[in-house]
Each structure stands twice: as C-alpha cells, then as structure tokens.
Amino acid sequence: MARPKHKLSSAELKAKAPGKYSDGGGLWFHKRPDGGAQWFLRYTLFGRRHEMGLGSFPAVSLKAARQAAEKWQAVVRVGKDAIKERGRQSREAQRNLNILADIAKDAFESRKAELKGDGKAGRWFSPLELHVLPKLGKMPVSQIDQRDIRDTLAPIWHTKADTARKAMNRLSICMRHAAALGLDVDLQATEKAKALLGKQRHKVTNIPAMPWKDVPAFYQSLDGGTTAELALRLLILTAVRSYPLRYLHLDQIDGDIWTIPAEAMKGRKGATSDFRVPLSKEAQSVIAEATPFARDGFLFPGVRKGVISDMTMSKLMERRGMVERPHGFRSSFRDWVAEATNTPHDIAETALGHVVGGAVERSYRRTDFLEQRKTLMDRWARQQLAKADQKIVQL
C-alpha cells in the first residue's frame, strides 16, 4: 500500500516542536532546537540512502518544497543522483553567467595575432566598446537574444551604417567565441537581429581622391621638408596605405626595396608573406631626406613619441582647403594605371598590395611581379616630376 503524501499543513509548521517530520514522498521538515527549520529530501539510489537539502523554512514554503521534492524524485526515478545532478546544473548555470564584456575581451585577445599591429590601434574592439558593451556588456552572454541586439544597434543602424555593421560583425564573433567556450548561446541571434532591423538605408561613399592628372602639381607643392610633407610624398610615390607608411622602419629598407611585414598589410587575406615595394629614385630621395628626422628607427616619428598619427597627413590637406584624403592617392594611382598605361590587371592590383587570384592559382604562381612593378613605379614617379605644361605620354 502506497504511503500517504502531504501529511503536513502550512498552519502547523511554525508551531512544531523540534524534530523531523515527514510530509510523505521523501519530503521531510526538520525543526531545530534554536527555532530554525529547513526542508530536505530523503531518497534511496542503488541501495544507498541520501538526504538533499531543499532550503530553509519559511523562505521556502510548504508548496515550493513539495514541488522541489517532486522535481528531484523524478530525477532519481530515471537512475540519476539528484544531488550530483543539481550540482551539475548549478555549474552549468554559473558557466553561462559569463558576461559579454569578458567574452568580448577574451575574443579580442585570441584574435590579436590576426590583426594589424596586434590590434593596438583598437579599431577591432572600438565598435563593441562604443556601441555594444555600454548596454549589453554586463549581461550574461547566454541570455542575449535578437531583441537585445536590435534595441542596442537600432540608434545607429541607418545613421552610422558602416559602424553598425562592424559592431554586428564583432558581436557575432563574440557569440561564436562563447559557444566555443561551451556556453549556451544563440548563434543565430545576430542574423535574427539583422532581420528585425531591416536593410540599411545608406549609400557607400568612396574616399575623395584627386584626379591623377592633378597629382603632380600637388606633389611638387610639398616642398617644405616637414615630416608630414615627406610622408605624403612617399605615400603618393609608393601607393601604399597609411599604416605601413607611418610605421616604416629603416631596417625594412634594403636598397631600392622596402619590405612591409605581412602583419602590417591590410586586404591581403589568404597571403602570409611580406610585401615588397619597389622604390623609385625619387622615393629613395624622399627617404634620404627624411632619414635625419628618424627616431628609434622609425622614418616618420611623431612630435612627442611613436610615429605620426593617421590624421597628420589628412590635416595638412585640410589646411589647404582640400576635400581629398591621403588614402585617395591609391585610387589616383590606379586610375592612372588604367587610363595612361597598358599594365596587365594582375600587375596593377599587385602594385596596390591586393591579393590576386584564388588560393589554388596563388599556390602555382609564386611571382610578385617585382621587376614589372619597378618599371611601373618609375613611370609613376616621373609622372609626379613632370612640369605642368609637359605633354602626358601614353605608356
């Protein structure tokens, strides 16, 4: 005959004398001599008796204690130890309390080696730091869903579309990183958030670039010998990006070749080798002129420490009332190559440091077209030194 359940009533619990009282179904009420009381579940598994605490009375009511007892008895009925199972669930819940801010920092640290300059410039982390972590940083990553992400990025989704896209991308990486750590996260949360936010209303705007026919006059006007002017001249002559130029170290130069370390090159995903830049006679002359100002081996040092900032050259152009930006000279160079030379596409793209072709094609083609690019960069340098009234010769 089954033992009757629910022997106790809420009204009598406070008046109970010290002792242990069964409510049935394995649930017990223990009244201590000091007046305190607690619940515990008594169960037998594999021939051994166990007692599992279920909380103090009256913080845990009789009804709540009965519900807890039934929950854990169900676990025992399938052959599991209720105490061990509760511990496992508690550890899992604790693990899932990892907040997004900590996950984001860990994800950033694990990816530093993949980022330009080990991510020291902060550009990878800043979209998260500025637009995501202030609102979601303290939330357990396992509790973040698409609505949280939508509400966080909605204010900039259309007004700062590119920044919002980067923030969403970084957040997706953080969610995948959390999953790799064994946390219970929704890997589709960012995609769902995009669906809720809708298609971005923005137009891609290119960085203003100077027409290639106007570059020589500007180049020749950079005659003050300042660090910013010398840096701009070398930027124009080599058609490289600002970062590797600003961090140009004298030990990277060997004669008429400047070797940029692979980690300093952007836009070369899939390429692991350094990038060789041929230096024209004019480029070598600029380097020689700048060398006396070098500090700690860096050709273009900053005023106080480090190297010149990303804005140094831009500010020089702004002060002259120009809307064009230094990065635009890469476009100027590329337009000149297309319009005034018969340079093959692969050589032109390689001159800009772009990876050309798929992985299989690159595995068979090992050349970086250095000799052809030397000729091309010599022609580009002569273009900058041409007089204003000199006829442009098709090359």
From TrEMBL:
It comes from the Bacteria. GO terms for molecular function: DNA binding. Keywords: DNA integration, DNA recombination, DNA-binding. Residues 205-377 form the Tyr recombinase domain. It holds the Pfam family Arm-DNA-bind_3. The keyword DNA-binding applies. Gene3D superfamilies: 1.10.150.130, Integrase, DNA-binding domain, Intergrase catalytic core. PANTHER family: PROPHAGE INTEGRASE, PROPHAGE INTEGRASE INTS-RELATED. Belongs to the 'phage' integrase family. This is Integrase arm-type DNA-binding domain-containing protein. It comes from Ruegeria atlantica.
